[in-house]
Design brief:
Blueprint (H helix, E strand, L loop, with lengths): L5 H25 L3 H8 L3 H8 L5 H7 L3 H17 L9 H9 L2 H5 L10
Helix pairs in contact: 1-2, 1-4, 1-5, 1-6, 2-3
Length: about 120
């Protein structure tokens, strides 16, 4: 039994996977550079580079995209960010994504993440 609250899991594991998915889509689908994607997400180019080299959040991001509700929320957020060229604080509903992922924690727990961490 873990004493980690759901929000701690989200901040440490799910949020990096979400950033990776959005950064990857901005770069591959919308033609953003790493620098412009970083600006749109309110992070650094180095962080985007780190995500793109599969160093953080990659395995979990693939699993999250298998969850229809999460994928739909991310696609809507991506459209808002791509339209405005910056992070709209309402674009990514992290709390809603967290609530959705709670339903799938058992299946996500079996997923090994970078560094051997497990949910």
């Amino acid at each position: 039994m873990s004493l980690k609250p759901p929000c701690e899991i989200s901040v440490k594991l799910i949020l990096p996977a979400i950033r990776l998915l959005i950064a990857k889509s901005l770069i591959e689908k919308y033609g953003y550079t790493q620098t412009s994607a970083a600006k749109a997400l309110g992070t650094t180019q180095a962080a985007i580079s780190h995500y793109m080299r599969s160093k953080r959040g990659w395995k979990l991001s693939e699993k999250l995209m298998e969850i229809d509700d999460v994928r739909e929320l991310l696609e809507k957020a991506l459209e808002k960010i791509a339209e405005s060229k910056r992070l709209d604080t309402d674009a990514i509903d992290v709390c809603q994504i967290c609530k959705i992922t709670q339903k799938y924690l058992d299946s996500l727990k079996t997923y090994k993440l970078h560094g051997g961490a497990v949910l």
